[in-house]
Amino acid sequence: MRDFGESLLVYRPPIDTRSVKEVIGQKSNGNPEKALNFLTPHQKWGIHSTYSDNLLMLTLGRGGPVVWLSEADAKELGIADNDWIEVFNSNGALTARAVVSQRVPAGMTMMYHAQERIVNLPGSEITQQRGGIHNSVTRITPKPTHMIGGYAHLAYGFNYYGTVGSNRDEFVVVRKMKNIDWLDGEGNDQVQESVNENSFTSRHGAESR
What we know:
Helix content: 10-25%
Number of helices: 3
Number of domains: 2
CATH class of the largest domain: Mainly Beta
Structural class: alpha/beta
CATH architecture of the largest domain: Beta Barrel
């Protein structure tokens, strides 16, 4: 550890995970895009999505997933508080409402851990699918010095009871959504098709008997 300068706490620049450069500007919707550092702290009022997705808790907040932005970055991107935004990189994409706050420093964005991904959530302009949470855009990058001395043998998988991944070094592209698509037509069509098939089967069975 000493050979790598890890005996004391020191500043290390963020890891270049190469997850932004290949996607920024590639699927533009006409709105400005910016790469920001993405943090995923644990929330205060829930354990994963448990408790935070009940009706009482939903009425105390925005009623769905949110991502926090600084006032400076929001102004640059043309994003107002409560606008729908899209957060993405080469790992995946998510949609959420923007919380614009002076408490967030410029250059970073924040999404509390494990928010409900199916409540009050439109489809992504990039993936054309509903859903997406903080894990959609993050990936685990184990720190090699944490595996010195056989420590890694404690883990059956990275980041679980073993080597801690540096999943706070992730960067994402943030932009305001242009078209808010709730994917209602597709879902309704699938449900209706299923209902029609079941109705036909029931009638056909009754007529046969």
